[in-house]
Specification:
Strand content: under 5%
Keywords: Membrane, Transmembrane, Transmembrane helix
Number of domains: 1
Strand order of the largest sheet: 1-2
Shape: elongated
Number of strands: 2
Number of helices: 4
Order of helices and strands: HEHHEH
Structural class: mainly alpha
């Protein structure tokens, strides 16, 4: 019984705890916002692809004369790509859930589905880069 009460307890995503650049006002949510998020996922995927190319040892000779420098550079680029994707995911979560009181189960389901959808878009972009 306690678990059921806990699952249906209402909560909200408090945007005030986050930096201003990640917050979403209800008036900002338009079709352009959706396509901007898709574009940002594509940019993060392109960065990940660049990191993967450097890791594979493609001929990108900038400062790779140091031992294992291409591994560190590629991992840093892939990590940056993941951070950008995560920030985009958080901003999309703020847009969908907003500041309304919602059951914790609803918030969890929406965040899971959003992460799955954005993960599919992210890895589809990466797959398209490798195929192209």
């Amino acid at each position: 019984m306690y678990i059921v009460k806990l699952l249906f307890k209402t909560a909200t995503l408090d945007q005030e705890k986050f930096p201003k650049f990640i917050r979403v006002n209800p008036g900002d949510i338009t079709l352009k916002f959706v396509f901007d998020n898709i574009r940002n996922v594509g940019i993060a995927a392109a960065l990940f692809y660049c990191g993967a190319l450097i890791f594979r040892g493609e001929p990108l000779r900038v400062f790779f004369d140091l031992a294992y420098s291409q591994v560190f550079v590629s991992l840093a680029i892939c990590l940056l790509s993941f951070v950008l994707w995560s920030l985009n995911l958080l901003q999309a979560a703020f847009a969908i859930i907003g500041q309304k009181e919602r059951p914790i189960v609803f918030i969890g389901i929406v965040l899971f589905l959003l992460q799955a959808a954005m993960g599919i878009v992210f890895f589809t972009h990466i797959d398209a880069f490798f195929d192209g």
